[in-house]
Design a protein that fits this description.
alpha/beta, Rossmann fold, 6-stranded parallel beta sheet, 12 strands
C-alpha cells in the first residue's frame, strides 16, 4: 500500500484536473491518498497578511506547507504530487525527504509570454525578478520528477530552468473517453433551420476570447449560427439579454450532464483564447468529436492541428474567426475534422492511460527512493 499525498491548486481548469485525478486514484486499490486541495479563496491567516494576501504564489505555497505538515502528522507519505509549481515554493524541505512530482501546465516564464491576458505584470524590479526565477528554478531541481502537460511546458522546464530532459515526462491531463464518447445530435429546430451551433466553454470569459467571439457573432455569424456560452461570468447573461440566437449558461460543473448535452448538440467548438496552456475544454470537445476553432497560444497546437481537426486563427481577430466558421459550413469538412478530433483524443488525451501513467511514475519514484535509502543504510553497516 502506498501513502501518497496529492496537493492540487483549486483555480480555473485545475479543478477539473483534480476531480479527474481523484476518480482514477479511487480505482487503484494500492494507493491510500491524502488529498490536499489548495483553494484560491481559502480563509486563513495568509489571506490577511500584508504582501502575502495579494500574492497567489506566496499564499498558495504557504497553504501547501501547512497542509503537508498536517498530513504528515496523520501518516508518513511515500510520495508527493504537487500541481502546480505555484504550490511548491515552500515545499523544498519536504521534497528533500519525500520523493516528489511537480506537475506543471506551464512554467512561470511560459506565463510571462502571455502576462497581459492573465493580468500578470511582467518585468519591473530586475533583482526581484531574478530572485523569483532562481526560487522557481530551485523548486524544479529539488523535485524527483516533473510531469509537464505538454512539450511546450517541458521545453521551458529544460531550456529555461536547466532541468535535465530525462527528469521531465510529458503527460497531458486526460478526458474519460467512456464518459465523453457519446453520439452528438441536433435538435429538431437546428435540423429545420440548418443553423450552425457554436459552443464556447470558458470560465474566464475575457481571457478565453469571449468578447472576440461576441464581436464576430454580432457582425456576421448571427445570421446563420446559434451560440451557446458556458462561463462563470454571471453578469454576461444580463448584458446579452434580448440578443437573438445566444444563450448563456452559468454554474455548470465539470463533467456534468447539462455540460455534456451542450457538447452533444454542437457543430463547432469555438475557443478564440488570448492566453492558455492546454485547456481541458478543447480536449473534451475533441473526445466528443467536434472540429475546433482556436488560436496559436501556449500548447494549443499540440491539441489542434490546423486543417486536420480544426482551424487556427490569430487571437483578437473577429474577421479571421468569421472566415474560419464559414470555412466549416460544409458537413463533409466538419465530419472529417470531427473524426480526426476523436482520433487525436484517443491517441493523446485518454484519461485512463494518462492518469495511470502519473500514478505509475509516483510508485516508481517511491520504490526507487526506498531502495536507495535501504542500500545506503546497509552500506553504512560495513
Amino acid at each position: 500500500m502506498y501513502n501518497f499525498g496529492f496537493v492540487v491548486e483549486q483555480a480555473l481548469g485545475h479543478v477539473t484536473h483534480y476531480q479527474n485525478l481523484k476518480h482514477w486514484v479511487a480505482e487503484d486499490a494500492d494507493i491510500c491518498p491524502s488529498w490536499m486541495p489548495i483553494w484560491w479563496r481559502g480563509n486563513d491567516i495568509w489571506k490577511y497578511m500584508p504582501v502575502i494576501g495579494n500574492n497567489w504564489s506566496l499564499r498558495a505555497s504557504l497553504r501547501t506547507r501547512d497542509a503537508l505538515n498536517a498530513a504528515r502528522r496523520i501518516q508518513p507519505l511515500d510520495a508527493l504530487f504537487l500541481h502546480t509549481q505555484t504550490l511548491a515554493l515552500f515545499a523544498i524541505p519536504f521534497m528533500r525527504h519525500i520523493p516528489t512530482i511537480i506537475s506543471t501546465d506551464g512554467t512561470p516564464l511560459n506565463f510571462d509570454t502571455m502576462g497581459a491576458a492573465y493580468n500578470h505584470k511582467v518585468g519591473g524590479n530586475s533583482l526581484l525578478e531574478r530572485r523569483k526565477f532562481l526560487w522557481n528554478k530551485s523548486t524544479y531541481h529539488n523535485a524527483t520528477s516533473i510531469v509537464a502537460f505538454s512539450q511546450w511546458a517541458k521545453d521551458s522546464v529544460v531550456d529555461d530552468y536547466g532541468v535535465p530532459a530525462e527528469k521531465v515526462t510529458v503527460i497531458p491531463p486526460g478526458v474519460d473517453l467512456e464518459q465523453w464518447n457519446f453520439r452528438r445530435n441536433k435538435t429538431e429546430h437546428q435540423s429545420s433551420t440548418n443553423a450552425l451551433r457554436l459552443l464556447f466553454v470558458g470560465g474566464d470569459f475575457a481571457r478565453k476570447g469571449g468578447y472576440t467571439l461576441l464581436e464576430a457573432f454580432r457582425n456576421s455569424l448571427n445570421q446563420d449560427c446559434t451560440l451557446e456560452i458556458v462561463t462563470k461570468d454571471a453578469n454576461l447573461e444580463r448584458k446579452l439579454a434580448g440578443i437573438e440566437n445566444i444563450r448563456v449558461h452559468c454554474g455548470l460543473t465539470p463533467n456534468s450532464q447539462p455540460l455534456k448535452e451542450l457538447y452533444a448538440q454542437a457543430d463547432i467548438f469555438v475557443f478564440p483564447t488570448q492566453a492558455d496552456c492546454l485547456p481541458n475544454a478543447i480536449s473534451e470537445a475533441m473526445a466528443v468529436g467536434l472540429p475546433v476553432i482556436t488560436t496559436d497560444v501556449g500548447a494549443l497546437p499540440e491539441q489542434v492541428e490546423h486543417g486536420v481537426n480544426g482551424l487556427i486563427v490569430p487571437p483578437s481577430d473577429p474577421a479571421a474567426l468569421i472566415n474560419a466558421v464559414r470555412a466549416l459550413k460544409s458537413d463533409t469538412k466538419r465530419d472529417a475534422m470531427a473524426a480526426a478530433s476523436h482520433r487525436i483524443a484517443e491517441e493523446r488525451f485518454d484519461a485512463r492511460r494518462n492518469y495511470r501513467a502519473i500514478l505509475a511514475l509516483m510508485k516508481s519514484i517511491s520504490k526507487n527512493y526506498t531502495e536507495t535509502r535501504s542500500a545506503r543504510y546497509k552500506a553504512s553497516l560495513f
